[in-house]
Each structure stands twice: as structure tokens, then as C-alpha cells.
Amino acid sequence: MDTTVAPTGTEGQTWGGGSNPLKASYGKMMMWFFILSDALTFSGFLAAYGFSRFKFIEEWPIADEVFNHFPFMHGTDAPMFYVALMTFILIGSSVTMVLAVDAGHHMDRKKVSFYLLLTVIGGLIFVGSQAWEWKNFINGEYGAVKTKGGKILQFTDAEGSRVALNEFVTVGERPVEALGNNEGIWYQSDDPIGSTYTIDEVRKGFAANPDLRIRTQQLIVNEETGASEKLLLSREESLFKLNNQAVGVVEGANLSENEYGAPLFADFFFFITGFHGFHVFSGVLFNLIIFFNVLLGTYERRGSYEMVEKVGLYWHFVDLVWVFVFTFFYLV
Amino acid sequence: MADHAAHTDGHAEHKLEIFRGLVKFKSNTQKIWGVLIFLSLITIVEVALGYIKPDSLNGHILGLKILNWIFIILTLVKAYYITWDFMHMRDEVSGLRRAVVWTGVFLIIYLIAILLVEGEYIYQVYKNAAVSFDF
């Protein structure tokens, strides 16, 4: 490591870096300061999320209604259980990491490699879980329509439980005019390509089902319980909104619109969980590199497993960030 | 612990007490499992509260729901034990600890306070101001 440093004749003395004022090696201290700066980056994202949420405090989506899927339990409402599971997976892989660090202090190569392997597996399961979470978020479940002003209108039955578009909308004809090979384009259509339903089909289906209501983004406080809930419109108001203000169908989520509510909600979801997922992914790579180094005996020869400790610090930091993302995205 | 050789057997120097000495573990490994159990319990409480959402916790303190205060405090408790015991901040000298933790805590509180106040202000402008399109 210090082969690139020219000898100055002060090695081992204070001026030559011989003493460690904070009783930590250079590498470990720099890892701590990197973590500090990375923590500030994540705080910036989460604070920006808080800013936008406070700005739209009366119309922010309710996380429980958005993240309610669980593998192999399709159709059941399981709010937060999946992210709770992900939290346990990440804390578990943090534990195996700290056990690897501890085994490193005892110079126990076998144990270090075993625990590192478990950590890598935990990290991979976590990244896979996040991909599944993204898939559900992007595909959406119920579908919605958007208004001229960019607000989202969702459909419910008379009691207020959500109704998906495919439960009441019939897909009609899609007039597509085929063009020849020499026309520059292959076909022409007046309807938007890509969405399953057109706004007229939604209007028709809505008119045919007198039970249906519309739910707006607006959050109101339930007088009895004090809980926040979405404002449910009467049948007449719903018909008026749908026929006069709705302009398009929204299914699932992307960066410019989503069926859950404010577009910023999906933007922050993609950005923050994506940035965290990228950290987990790079953490898995670091762990793999030191795992192979442990197998090759690099740290055995170096006489210190401090590299495991430094990468361990990074890995725990990733876990630490998730604790905050979990709270501010899913709980609060 | 001035040189590397001393550092490699640093396991002898782990502080094994948590909760201000209320619980003392016999070894570092034991402490790790103990902290895992504690963190899991907190997470279970968080998920249970988030699932049930008791109506009695819907009141507001300082503009924030009591339930959300509980979530935030439990999160900070979790963050403390991850940093102190998994990342071994407990075993570092106070200088390093303060350089990292105080800096971060100060800047993060500052950032959050400014942004949340500003967000609340813009909400008020959208809601109440006579002119809301150019501010």
C-alpha cells in the first residue's frame, strides 16, 4: 500500500504519519468520512422527499395502499409485510457481516469466508426483492385516470374499496389503418398506442355500473378516528369529474405519471430506492472481491483482516440507510 | 493500539455493555446476537404499529402525528445500535466518533429543518395565497 510513498526519513514519527491521532488506521478513518458524505447525500434525497411531501401534504399517496403485495399471495392485501421481510434480510446480512469482522479479529479464515458468503447471499436476495417490488410498482394494480390538471382519479365501489379498470371497462375496437411499405410509417391510429383502455371506454364502463365512485388524491381527516383517508366523491360528482375533467388513462408508474397519485411520489421512489439498491449492488461486489481475497489468503499473508472491517463498515451503512428509507417511504 | 499488530487482536477491546451497562455480554459474538434480537423486536413493533395504526395515536404533537413520532424515534434507536455495535463506533475514540456523528447530525438536522419549513410554506401559498402561480 505504501510503496508509492517516497521515504522521507520521518517514518514512524508523528510527522511521517507514525501516530494515529484518532486511534484508527488511515483506511478505516477515510471509510468513516466517505460514509459521512454518503449519509449526507442520502439525507439530501430524503429531505427533498420530505419537502415535496410537505408541499403536497394533502394529496400524497398512502404507502399502505401502494405497497401491499406479497409473493405467492396474489390479491391479498398485505401492507408492508414484504418490506418488513426485506428489512429482516438486510439486518440479517449485517449480522453475518459483523460476525465475519469478528472472525477476522481472531484470524479465522474459514469462518470469515463462510460469513462473507452468507452476507453476499443476503445482499443478492435483497436486491432481487427490490426488483420484485419495482416490478409491482411499475405494473400497477388498479389503474386510474388523470385530469387536465394532472391529478389522479381512482375508482372504488359504493363502500370505497378499490375497483380495477379491468373489472368494469370493456376494450373496444382499435381502428388502425395499415399503410404500405413506402409510406414511411407502417400504421396510423387515432387512439393512444400503449394503454389498454381509452378514456371513452372508461367513461362508458363507468356509466354502465351505477355502483362505481371516484376517489380523488385529496386526503381528508376522518372525524371519528382521526386517520387520514382519500376523499370519496358522490355518484353525481364522480360522473361530472370523469366526463368533464378526465383526459387520459394511467396504468402503473413511470417517471412522468403514476396511478398512485402525485408524479413526484414515483420519481422519489425510483430515485431513492434505486440509489440505495445501487449501493447494495456495489456492496455485494465489494463483498465478493474480499471474499475471494480471503479464499486466496491475501489477508492471512498481510497479517490483518482490516479490509473486511472496512468493507463491513460500508455494508452496515447500506443497512443503516435502508432503516431510514423503510421509515420514511413505507411507515410514516 | 498505535500500530497494526495491536489492532489485529482488537477483539479484546470491545465494550460489551449496552443500555448503559444494564445488559453486559460475555463476548463480542454474543453481543452481536443480542443486538440483532433487539433490532428485530423494534422492527416487529414498527410493522405491527404500521399495520394496526391505532386510532389513539392519531393525535398531533408539534405538527406531526404521534404514530409518526414513534416511528422516527424507533428508527433513530435502530440507527444508534447499528452504528454503535455493528459498526463498532462504541469502540472508537471519542474524537473520531464526534467528528463523524456530530458533523452528520448537525448538517442533517439543519437540512431537514430548512426544507420542511420551506415545503410547508409552499403548501400554504398553494392553498391560501391570492396569487400562487409566481412566487
TrEMBL record, chain A:
The chain crosses the membrane at residues 31-51, 80-100, 112-132, 268-292, 313-331. One of its GO terms (molecular function) is cytochrome-c oxidase activity. Residues 1-332 form the Heme-copper oxidase subunit III family profile domain. It comes from Nonlabens ulvanivorans (Persicivirga ulvanivorans). InterPro entries: Cyt_c/ubiquinol_Oxase_su3, Cyt_c_oxidase-like_su3, Cyt_c_oxidase_su3-like_sf, Cyt_c_oxidase_su3_a-hlx. The keyword Transmembrane applies. Pfam families: COX3. It is found in: Cell membrane. Keywords: Cell membrane, Membrane, Transmembrane, Transmembrane helix. It is a multi-pass membrane protein. Belongs to the cytochrome c oxidase subunit 3 family. This is Cytochrome c oxidase subunit 3. One of its GO terms (biological process) is aerobic electron transport chain. PANTHER family: CYTOCHROME BO(3) UBIQUINOL OXIDASE SUBUNIT 3, CYTOCHROME C OXIDASE SUBUNIT III. GO terms for cellular component: plasma membrane.
From TrEMBL, chain B:
It is a multi-pass membrane protein. The chain crosses the membrane at residues 32-52, 64-84, 99-117. Keywords: Cell membrane, Membrane, Transmembrane, Transmembrane helix. The keyword Transmembrane helix applies. One of its GO terms (cellular component) is plasma membrane. Pfam families: COX4_pro. It is found in: Cell membrane. InterPro entries: Cyt_c_oxidase_su4_prok. This is Cytochrome c oxidase subunit IV. It comes from Nonlabens ulvanivorans.
